[in-house]
Design a protein that fits this description.
Elements lengths: L2 H12 L8 H22 L8 E6 L2 E8 L2 H12 L6 E8 L1
Parallel strand pairs: 2-3
Antiparallel strand pairs: 1-2
Helix pairs in contact: 2-3
Amino acid sequence: MSLDTACKTIAFLAETPEFRRTEERTKDLEDKALAARVYAALEADPRTRGSDVDVRASGSIVSLSGRITHANMRKLIIEIASAVPGVSQVKDGITTY
């Protein structure tokens, strides 16, 4: 496929319904972006790096789940997640073992 054909194909596909921007898709992308920023903040801190925590976002509310080995790490994880711009509330579903 030539570069010109590839560009035309991408431009055509971008106009199909599957790729059109909708309010629902925009919200989904914003939620995923916020969850990724929280996850990145947890990975950037050496104290929480590698922790087995799942991060999900809905609007400005972040939900954390997973299992950690130390109960005192829960507070630190919640503090880091709460400090990420755009987070208004953190729901704690983390368990310790």
